[in-house]
Specification:
This protein is mainly alpha-helical. The protein is built from four helices and no strands.
C-alpha cells in the first residue's frame, strides 16, 4: 500500500473488518488479517496509536488461533516493528512499547 492511496483504501479496509467480524467473528484469523491491513493504512497516515492497537489485536488473535510460531505472527510483528522503528526515529517510542512489556 502506498501512502497516497491509504485515504481511499481506509473506508474499504474498515468495511472489510466489519464484514469479517460479522461473518467470522471478532476473534477469527481472517478478521486478524483485516485488522492488520487497516493498521498498515493507519500507520501510513501517521495514526500511530490506532495502528498499534490494531497490530496488537491481530497478534493476539493469531497467537490464540495458531500458536506463537505461525508465519502470520511474523508478518504482523515485522509491520509492528517497522512502526516502532519509525516512532523511535521521531523520538515518540516510549508511548508505543506495549508489546515489549507484555
Amino acid at each position: 500500500m502506498h501512502k497516497g492511496t491509504t485515504k481511499q483504501a481506509q473506508p474499504l479496509l474498515e468495511r472489510a473488518v466489519a464484514i469479517s467480524e460479522q461473518t467470522f467473528g471478532p476473534e477469527h484469523p481472517t478478521t486478524a488479517g483485516c485488522l492488520s491491513n487497516l493498521a498498515e493504512a493507519y500507520a501510513l497516515q501517521s495514526r500511530h496509536q490506532e495502528a498499534e492497537s490494531l497490530y496488537l489485536h491481530a497478534l493476539a488473535i493469531y497467537k490464540q488461533a495458531f500458536g506463537q510460531d505461525h508465519p502470520n505472527i511474523a508478518i504482523v510483528m515485522e509491520a509492528y516493528t517497522s512502526l516502532l522503528e519509525h516512532l523511535k526515529g521521531q523520538k515518540k517510542l516510549p508511548n508505543y512499547c506495549k508489546l515489549l512489556t507484555r
